[in-house]
Design goal:
The complex is a heterotrimer of chains A (about 130), B (about 150) and C (about 1150).
Chain A: H1 2-21, H2 24-46, H3 56-72, H4 83-99, E1 104-109, E2 117-122
Antiparallel strand pairs in A: 1-2
Chain B: E1 12-16, E2 22-27, H1 33-52, E3 65-71, E4 75-81, E5 87-93, H2 101-119, H3 133-140
Antiparallel strand pairs in B: 1-2, 1-5, 3-4, 4-5
Chain C: H1 6-14, H2 33-36, E1 41-46, H3 54-64, E2 74-79, H4 108-115, E3 119-125, H5 133-150, E4 157-164, H6 175-188, E5 195-199, H7 204-231, H8 243-259, H9 263-279, H10 284-307, H11 311-325, H12 335-358, H13 369-390, H14 429-444, H15 449-465, H16 469-485, H17 489-505, H18 509-525, H19 529-539, H20 548-562, H21 575-586, H22 588-591, E6 597-600, E7 608-614, E8 618-619, E9 625-633, E10 639-640, E11 643-648, E12 658-660, E13 679-680, E14 686-692, E15 702-714, E16 718-725, H23 731-734, E17 763-766, E18 773-778, E19 783-784, E20 789-797, E21 803-812, H24 818-821, E22 824-827, H25 833-838, E23 850-855, E24 860-869, E25 873-887, E26 896-911, E27 914-922, E28 931-932, E29 937-945, E30 951-960, E31 965-966, E32 976-980, E33 985-993, E34 1003-1005, E35 1007-1015, E36 1025-1030, E37 1033-1037, E38 1041-1046, E39 1050-1052, E40 1057-1065, E41 1071-1077, E42 1083-1086, E43 1090-1095, E44 1100-1109, E45 1113-1116, E46 1120-1124, H26 1131-1136, E47 1142-1146, H27 1149-1159
Parallel strand pairs in C: 1-2, 1-3, 3-4, 4-5, 6-16, 8-17, 19-26, 28-37, 39-47
Antiparallel strand pairs in C: 7-9, 9-14, 10-13, 11-12, 11-15, 15-16, 15-17, 18-20, 20-24, 21-23, 21-25, 22-24, 25-26, 27-29, 29-33, 30-32, 30-35, 31-33, 34-37, 35-36, 38-40, 40-44, 41-43, 41-46, 42-44, 45-47
Helix pairs in contact in C: 1-17, 3-7, 5-6, 7-8, 8-9, 9-10, 10-11, 10-12, 11-12, 12-13, 13-15, 15-16, 16-17, 17-18, 18-19, 19-20
The chains are: A mainly alpha (about 130), B alpha+beta (about 150), C alpha+beta (about 1150).
Chain lengths: ~130, ~150, ~1150
Amino acid sequence: MADEALFEFLHMEVVSYLFKTADEEKCIPILENMGYRVGHSLAERFTKDSSRFKDELDIMKFICKDFWTSVYKKQVDNLRTNHQYLAFPCGLIRGALANLGISCIVTAEVQNMPACKFQIMIQRSQ
Amino acid sequence: MTGQRLSKMAVCVAVISKENYPLYIQTIPTEDDLKFHYTVHTSLDVVEEKINNVGKTTNDLRELYLGLLYPTEDYKVYGYVTNTKIKFVVVVESSNTALRDNEIRTMFRKLHNAYTDMVCNPFYTPGDRITSRVFEKVVNGMMLQDS
Amino acid sequence: MEKAGDTAESESVVQPEVPPQVETMATSWELPTELCCRPLALVALTGMDVTYNAVHRAIWDAFSANRRADRVPLAFRVLPGDHEYPKCKTKRQSYEWYIPKGILKTGWMNKQLNMVPAVVVVFFDLDWDEPLWREKQMECATRVEVVRASLQGRSTRVAVVLIQKNAPLPPGEDMVAAERAAALCSACELSAKSLFVLPHTDHLLGYIIRLENAFYELAQNYYHMEARRVKSHKEFLNKTTHQLLFVRHQFKIAFYNEMKQDTHTALKHYKQAYQHLNEVRTHDTNMLEIKTVSGFINYKICRLSFQHNAPLDAIAQFRKHVDLFKNKVGCAELAFEHSSWISKQFQVFGDLFDEAIKLGLTAIQTQHPGFYYQQAANHAITRKELCRKLCDPTAKYPSTDPLELAAKLDFYGQRPWRQGHQSIDPPDAQKEREGILSLQLLELTVDHSWIIIPLLSSAVAQFKKYKSARMKRYLMVQMGEEYYHAKDYGKALTLLTRVLWDYRSERWWALLTAILTCALKCAYLVANVQEYISISLELIGQYTLTSAEEKTRIQMNLIRVMSGDPPEPEPECVPEAVEEAKQLWTSDAIQTVTQPFTIELQNLVPFVECKAGFSLASNPPDKHMVLDVYLSVRCPFPIRFSKLSVLLSNPAYNKHCTLADSRGIANSDAGDAETGDLYLVPGQVKHHQFLLIPTVEDVGRKVEITSVALELGTPGTRSAILHWQGGGGDAATNSSAPRVMSGRRREDQPAEIDWDGLSLYGSISVVPRPPRVQVQLKHKPPALANEFYAVELTVESQEDDEITEVSLHVGLKDGQDTSLESTTHICFDAPTQEDAETFIDKPQPQAPGLSVGSLKTGEKVTRTMYMRCLQVGQRMLSVRVVYNIQVSIGKQASPICCTCVKEEIVPIETVMPVDASIRLKSLLMDALEQIHYDEPFLLLTDISCVSPWSIRISSTELQLTEALRPATGQLESHIHKLQLNKNDRASDCYCLTAPLNKIHQGSVLMGEYSIRWRRADADDSIPYVMTVLSLPEVPIMNLPVMVEMELPAHGRVREPLGITYTLHNRTSTVQEMEVMMEPSEAFMFSGHKQVHFRLLPYGKHILTYNLYPLLSGHMVLPRLHVNMLRYPGTTDQIISKMMPTHVFIMPTGKEAMEEVFAGS
């Protein structure tokens, strides 16, 4: 669909623009923060019609199912496997979870090419 | 609380942050809007109790709409909590019998939609006071107007 | 939610004190006690003298004292026999022309409860055997008659109790009693059921309980009849003129039923009464009466509903009640009266609800008495406001008091100046006006705050109980405000400041501002300087929503106060209070306080913010620690502070972290170089930097900022120390609400310093100065187990100056396996031969430090250390060089002494030098698995070198246990002064025997084998070490027989060859022996072919054979079979191993030799 393509192109452009204009080490945090802000908003929008989450498990299920499908249409292989492309989705997950009350650190790694593993470490405050 | 007013409307609409500070409070023009601030603030006691009990009691509250928080002699206070722990509080006059549960529910849905749109505005910083005019317009549409 | 500490203390403040003069006007809607009590059936006891007659006294006590809950609900009165009961009105025959004057008569309930008994009991001392029976009977009848006469027209029951000295006989046995009882009943016109006998014997209470149960039954019957009587009037009434009577009658029926203890029926009739009352048309004239009575009936309905465990019914009834009446204000000039009435309704319902909870009802967060008390308080507040609006304090009280009869009304809820009047318009307009005016003036005497505060206090207790902390706080604010109105400013201030924290931490700035504004007034009025300053600090800050002008005014006042002057009064204060306050502010008590006030800022949202911290997380001791302090104010106009000090965890630095500005709070001069500048301009961040020299004792420790203090005002006159815990932060920055991530800069912020972006370290670690020496290690790994392993250490100074007190510390690195520590010995002393043998018992994993003096730039020093490892494995060796050096920091003149440490960690592997094993062989070189006593065997030791380095063995030695000894001569090692390279082997051979002088069980220990060795290339100074190997255990056996064979070294063909076999018995028993010589192709022989003989204990037998060789070469000898009858089948095999099996036979002469060779 067209909107998917738009998102793809926009994302690619953002990444390449940043890497052209900013310092290498600043790019990742900037992308991550952009993802955070988008994830934060999307969490607001996508949970609007779901029933109340009972616990963390409910939230993680939501992130893995509804949220991810809505953003990436299940085509997870579409993800670029370069790490700079993963900063945004990492932030996306972190932002969505933060808005739902779970603070965490999200890292991604690519071991076998089409698959990408996101690791979410939940920080227990207090 | 006399005076003829358009019915079916709220007298106070509030949006409260995750951390329980006000993001937005709109009241009908009154001398004592502080009273509404207190009404909204104290209603958080009930909101908190209700969401803390989610998953603990058998009659689970899985709906975002919390229903009537508590009635006072003059006002009825209704609550709604999003999954992101943003609270909406709507106060209507007790004498207002035209507003039934369904109308209140619709009101909250509208409010939630407007809030979501507002949050998705990239120029808004989550956690800041809400100053969006579009949002304000939606809220004004729910408030009592002098007839 | 709730701040700890606030709870326990707040109790005392929340509980209002009883005001000095409580002026409660007995308003007509106040619930009378006879309405609120539980109605009990009234029983009059007559004919008793409870003062002088001990028996009567005892009876009365049994009735009245300590009535437990299981006794029947009755109220007893002792009355004289001739007591006048209220006269019964003549019964109305028709209601046709009757117009009721009111709803409920004020005296009626009291009359039923306390004056008209259901039962009158006549007590009379009379025994059945009374001699003057007739006279007594007459007297009793007279007394009954007197009572009856007084009760004329009433259906009150009369009963007679005879007090008797004797215990009664069983029924039917006392004929006299039966007869006289019947006579007495007849004389008194009494039914037999109403005559009772009370013997005052041992079981008085038991009799009394039976008696009162009988009275209870009579009473119930009475009230039942009364209710029916009232009900019977209904048919005479008509709906238009007698509406009030419908209410009254239903109320009466209900009340009688209550007295009868039939509460369900009572509730039904109260509801009907309420219903009828609602049908009455209300107008200003009768409004008060209707509200009053409806309040009474509502009270009864709610109370009974709670009692019937139907709280929802009670709540619904109350809701309905309030909804029905809340807009029925009645006379507008007396609107406060309406609020007072509603307030009372709520309060009473709250009390009923609370009472029900105490009796076991469960309430919830959204439905509990607190809400009703809160509403009661709200209406009381409305009442106060209406009073202020409606009542004119300057008006004159009417000359004739319209309220004269207020305490003596005939009907509940009527106006005293027009009692009994029921028409719509008041009968006398002038009187009406005067009445209203007098009520207004009366209202002005009411101190409303003392009605409101206790109600709020009750509500606070309830909301606290039902987990509503915010509501509780709100009510406390209201209480504070009410105390303010009541002019108790001190208490108001205490209450308000108590709740501030929660509004601050939850960031409800609008509410915080409102509370602070009120609190500031209180602080001004009581001249509480500290609170005044503290509140002002917040009100002029960035978070409060006070207007800019207000902020300016408050800041000006703050500057006045800090300069020692009184502030301007706060607006909207009562003038008298302001006058008092002015006195207070100039009083000595306040003016002479020169002690600075300390204000903790982390609990406030002050106008001044601070960020203090170090720019680095760690710092070496030879560099300045940089401490930055940033200050920013958000007040309306600039302000000058007098002193800034940063306190650190090591107070030694504190004197270097202060800055004073002595120009005065209002001075606006620009800073000069002489004194510090603490003039803060709103929106401009002020930056101060302190450079600190680390102290020696802080090396390896952390220096932390414990607090920052900023002084405002003039020290010595009046000053406040604003105190931040740690490096700054206030209630807003510390609150749970995070400052949202935003890259935005505050708009009022000049570009140079981004306040939010400031990031500092709250503490700094003083780390040791990095060392500048080089350490080199020379050694030949791996180390060999047990050897003295030499490591050569070379230290070279690369410092620019001389280093002193250089010392070497060598040892195993901490935290390794403890088994490594117990098997490692490290020292700097060259080992002696003696060391090689002694110190293995007490290894030393850390060598004592070795001082090597001073080193100049580029100078080197070399030392050798020795390490002896008893066990193989990898060890981490730590080599540390510690030294001192003098350094100077910046321009400072005197240099300071720094200690530097250089550490090298070296892994060292230890391996075995040799691998040694042993073998056992028989003299025939067969491998042995066991040895026999007295039978010699061979021990072979094999040493193989497994070390990568060649080793030199100086000697080896075998030490035997007493079980073994050399078979011949001395033990002599053949391995000595031998060098073994990698994989070389060396073997030694010993011939040993186990003598039979001691019998061992199963196996014997053989002893030890030791090797003295060192590295082949070792320096001569390194001694040989001895590595000792334990020899294994070997199984040992005793044979019952031993055979020795004597045989020449060789024989010759056709030349006789003599051999002997000696058989030894090795047992203590006689042994039967069977010997058989096997024929052989190579030999002919003479001697016993087969023989049978006995061997005596430890004896021997010699067999002699002559062999005649037939063939030459290495020939098999004829085999001797030995069989012992005691050990059948086993002996022969063992013995065959003891004897040679072959012999070499030489041919005879040359041909014979040739034949042999040709044949081979």
